Amino acid sequence: MASPRLETYCCPNRDAATQLVMNFQPKVFCGVCIGSASVSLLLTILQLLPKKGQSPRKVPKASSSSTILLLISICDMLGGLGVIFRSSVWLGFPGFIANISVVNGTDVWPSAFCVGSAMWIQLLYSAGFWWLFCYAVDSYLVVRRSAGLSTIVLYHMMTWGLAVMLCVEGIALLYYPSLSSCENGLEHAIPHYITTYAPLLLVLVVNPILFRRTVSAVASLLKGRQGIYTENERRLGTEIQIRFFKIMLVFIICWSSNIINESLLFYLEMQPDINEMPLKNIRSAALITWIIMGVLNPMQGFLFTLAFYGWTGWRVDLKWRKREIPWESMSSSTVGENAYPSPVNYQGNAHDSKKITTTDSQQTDDAISMLSEGNTSGDDRLTRSSPIYQGW
């Protein structure tokens, strides 16, 4: 799981709320994290591997959207590996982890492991949040024909730069002036929590707005082809809208428990004594959401692949051959096959008008195909039947 409480736990003088959740059934909690992260990691890899029965075809040109989707999956897998490693050490070496609680201890390795593993998990999941935000931005810009593979460099700079900067800044403020004196007051913790949850809240607030604008732009783009909006175009727009809805649904399911848990723990921190009887229900809710976080946070990687590509099947093909990579859309190849229209014999202005129309149609095809990458075979049949993919 990914929570700023992990870094707070590295403080020997941690607050009572952090102590409450971290000491609640630690073996069970670590086992839940290992199980959830392991299942998610294996299923995510299975989703991305090429499958038997797929007909070999020419690899279509990669787009920025498909690259971003792959990078989101990679961040989730690396974050899951961090969860497995950290939880395994906690389970296998309880005496090693117990040294973190020793104030002014001479052994720095437990604290170094605690800080390093927590930063690794936080950085990777934070980078995944930024990549998801970039995906929403890129989808909108693609429809507006203002993005492409060239913009992926800017996305890399923004994603990794902001993820590293916020992570380092939050950790530095939390552990200032030293690890033994952190968590002496909320002035240390609050900036750390802000830098941790800023990208998460950005995705929750801004991505639905960008997705909604993208869907509206797609409808306008499809109508502009012939001045009409047929049933096929309407169904294609609905499929893209459903895909965006699935992405946001997975994100909300996996991370809403973090926001609820953090709100409850902050409320407990404000109380003089968190062990008072009137706070029993709040303590129970905080502990329940803490376990839920251990299950849902690592599962984001696999659930996102379902939202991105659908279920790709069990039959893995490990033979080395030049094939279509699984995260590329079948509809992309459809566009490639029909990108050039049949020869026409128009003369003069008629020929020029046909050329302009074909160029505009191909640009529209490219924009829509980037948004529909990774759709299932049913979506592919839809795009094949739509006039938007008939080459004209």
From TrEMBL:
How does the UniProt record describe the way this protein sits in the membrane?
Multi-pass membrane protein
Q: What is its main location?
A: membrane
Output the Pfam families linked to this UniProt entry. Answer: Ocular_alb
BP-aspect Gene Ontology terms: melanosome organization; regulation of calcium-mediated signaling
UniProt keyword Transmembrane helix present: yes
GO MF terms, alphabetically ordered: dopamine binding; L-DOPA binding; L-DOPA receptor activity; L-tyrosine binding
Q: Does the keyword Transmembrane helix apply?
A: yes
Q: Where is this region: Disordered?
A: 370-392
Annotated GO CC locations: apical plasma membrane; lysosomal membrane; melanosome membrane
Assigned keywords, A-Z? Cell membrane, G-protein coupled receptor, Glycoprotein, Lysosome, Membrane, Receptor, Transducer, Transmembrane, Transmembrane helix
Q: Which residues cross the membrane?
A: 24-46, 67-85, 119-141, 153-178, 190-211, 244-267, 287-311
Location relative to the cell: Apical cell membrane; Lysosome membrane; Melanosome membrane
Please describe the quaternary structure of this protein: Interacts with heterotrimeric G(i) proteins. Interacts with ARRB1 and ARRB2. Interacts with MLANA.
What role does it play?
A: Receptor for tyrosine, L-DOPA and dopamine. After binding to L-DOPA, stimulates Ca(2+) influx into the cytoplasm, increases secretion of the neurotrophic factor SERPINF1 and relocalizes beta arrestin at the plasma membrane; this ligand-dependent signaling occurs through a G(q)-mediated pathway in melanocytic cells. Its activity is mediated by G proteins which activate the phosphoinositide signaling pathway. Also plays a role as an intracellular G protein-coupled receptor involved in melanosome biogenesis, organization and transport.
Family membership? Belongs to the G-protein coupled receptor OA family.
Q: What is this protein called?
A: G-protein coupled receptor 143
Whose protein is this, by species? Eurystomus gularis
